[in-house]
Amino acid sequence: MLIALIARDKDGALQTRLDNRAAHLAYIEETGVVAQAGPLLNGDAMIGSLIILEVEDVAAAQGWADNDPYAKAGLFQSVELISWKKVVG
Known about the structure:
The chain is an alpha+beta fold. It contains 3 helices and 4 strands. Pfam families: YCII.
């Protein structure tokens, strides 16, 4: 099952993002469930994340999201998990 994780950073949290970026990227690599990922941008500024997870169910996606170093660092203002269907690409 594909799940889109859409997270918006808290205002003024760029340093939190930068401080935890290496751990976040290592977590992506270690878990092996991320199909695609990248930051949401406002101009050149990173303001959130879009991550496509390939997991068994929404509960697995929630567990992944809860253990993301960005989430543990308190980076996000909001996180949405939405079932997603790949059509193109």
